[in-house]
Amino acid sequence: MKITYLGHASLHIEFSETSIIVDPFISGNPLAAHIDINNLQADYILVTHAHQDHILDVEAIAKNTGATIVSNYEIAMHYGAKDFNVFAMNHGGTYTTETFSAKYVNAIHTSSFPDGSYGGQPGGFVLTANGKSIYIAGDTALTYDMKLIPMQTKLDVAILPIGDTFTMGVEDAIIASDFVECGRVLGYHYDSFPPIAIDKEAAKIRFKEKAKSLVLLDIGKSLNV
Ligand code: NI
Ligand code: MN
């Protein structure tokens, strides 16, 4: 699995000739100005919740690629009504294709569309492909529900928000990595706006002090799992 960081909470995940985009917020992110959404391949777009900083480029990418938008029922219906290909699910459900499975798991957050309309309940995904599993937490607080994940799935990487203010910060993300039993963390949802700016070196040191590794990718760079 090749995971490319597209800035903020946006990811491009590739394996077995399958291409997945997660929470595309690229054209509105000055830090990701070197990423052209028109060059992105996608068979699927996973959407954790309806906030603008997770859905901004969903429609443009779906139009370009014909990708299937996979999300909670309300978000899927929202895009289905606009004639996009969608797969609707809800917490606890798993979407299974020939090359991967994606389970929609709980997140503690909110989920309204930019116009204030209801975006269902927010979630994260446990994605499994080629014998590897990753947890894409979405925007979430630290929650005991994270302990359910390793009861069923041995994670290879946990992708956790670390920017604080709207989600967990670094200290809670360290505890989250204990809860999901995965010491290899890819941090996201930081530095895009002033309220979520972090000291990246200090964050890495804190993880190291707890015998964990925090990977922070430059935008456009990849991690292989
Ligand atoms: Ni959010
Ligand atoms: Mn967000």
Word description of this protein:
There is one protein chain. Helix content is 20%, strand content 28%. The protein is an alpha/beta fold and 225 residues long. The protein has one domain: Ribonuclease Z/Hydroxyacylglutathione hydrolase-like (Metallo-beta-lactamase, Chain A, 4-Layer Sandwich). The strands form 2 sheets. A 7-stranded mixed sheet has the order 6-5-4-3-2-1-14, covered by helices on one side. Manganese (II) ion (MN) is lined by residues 9, 51, 53-54, 139, 166, 189. Nickel (II) ion binds next to loops.
Q: How many structural domains can be distinguished in the coordinates? A: 1
Distance between the terminal alpha carbons, to the nearest Å?
5 Å
CATH architecture tag: 4-Layer Sandwich
Work out the number of β strands. 14
Query: What structural class do you assign from the helix and strand content?
Result: alpha/beta
> DSSP helix count?
6
Q: Strand sequence of the main sheet, in spatial order?
A: 6-5-4-3-2-1-14
General form: globular
The secondary-structure element order is EEEEHHEHEEEEEHEHEHEE
Helix proportion: 10-25%
Give me a quick take on this structure.
The protein has about 220 residues and is an alpha/beta fold. About 20% of the residues lie in helices and about 30% in strands. The model has no long low-confidence stretch (mean pLDDT about 100).
In terms of topology, how is this protein built?
Elements: E1 2-5, E2 11-15, E3 18-22, E4 44-46, H1 52-55, H2 58-65, E5 68-72, H3 73-80, E6 86-89, E7 94-96, E8 101-106, E9 123-129, E10 132-136, H4 149-152, E11 157-161, H5 170-179, E12 184-188, H6 200-209, E13 213-215, E14 222-224
Parallel strand pairs: 3-4, 4-5, 5-6, 10-11, 11-12, 12-13
Antiparallel strand pairs: 1-2, 1-14, 2-3, 7-8, 8-9, 9-10
Bound molecules: nickel (II) ion and manganese (II) ion.
